[in-house]
Amino acid sequence: MEPSLETLKQMYRTMWTIRHFEETAGNLYKRGLVKGGIHASIGQEGVAVGVCTALRSDDWITSTHRGHGHHIAKGADLKRLMAEILGKDTGYCRGRGGSMHVAAFDVGSLGASAIVAAGVPMGVGAALSARMQESDRVVVSFFGDGAMGQGTLYESLNLAAVWELPIIFLCENNQFAVSTRIDQSIAIEDRQALAKAYGMASACVDGQDVLAVHAATSEAVELARSEGGPSLVECQTYRYEGHYFGEPQVYRTREEVEEVRRSRDPIIRFGTWLEAEHGIDREALNALEAEASRAVGEAVTFAQQSPEPRPETFGEYVYA
What we know:
This protein is of the alpha/beta class and 320 residues long. It has a single domain, classed as Rossmann fold (3-Layer(aba) Sandwich), CATH 3.40.50.970. The chain is globular. The chain has eleven helices and seven strands.
């Protein structure tokens, strides 16, 4: 079922929020205001928004090092998220996690990890928890195509299938694991066959089409919530930036990136569809983008004015 018109507008605004947030974070990084790196998902906004719009507020997600969009799409507070990236005490993890290790428990984001595929077994554990609590919560575990080369992914798929857990394994296939194309590192060409091997449902969709992502995720969520077991959903997408801001992208041409920007940008495609199918004019679309931009600007102001963590608290909120 297509989302309501109000939800469609919210999806468009959220996609712009993610893009402006990450572009702004990248600029702050270039100015030396961010401790550590920034791994942006610019170009992949359709995946995060399509997936998270299909979830309830009490559903859970696990994320990756490229997770800003996931947190924002799940409803994270922009001010606390930006403060975390800037290492401030008002951040989600009191400035101790930074860009790659955000956890926003208030909106069901159980955490991101810089370790490839590390969030997948976390998601399986969360799904098992939901089952043991006799809850109808669903878990989405995001991972990139690079995780296809990690054994922990296959162990997680197996356990989820054996226990028929309410989890969606969500592959954001942006074509590159750091600088290596997927066809040079992963032997499995048909990821649907992988799901079939574990007896679980699967789908492969255009990740640049937010509505296609939403439809596939909604179907997987319905299956999981009705005790139908896990699913594997692959979203074929593309990142415009390098593996991190400032990376020398010697593994692809500028022309390749610009061609995707021109022909497959998820926000432009969605805006064009909203105009054609719902009569939302360009002025209204621009207003939604402006709202997103203002919210990001307010988040930056909040973060920059927030205090640094006090040195004497360095051992607090850290667990081992």
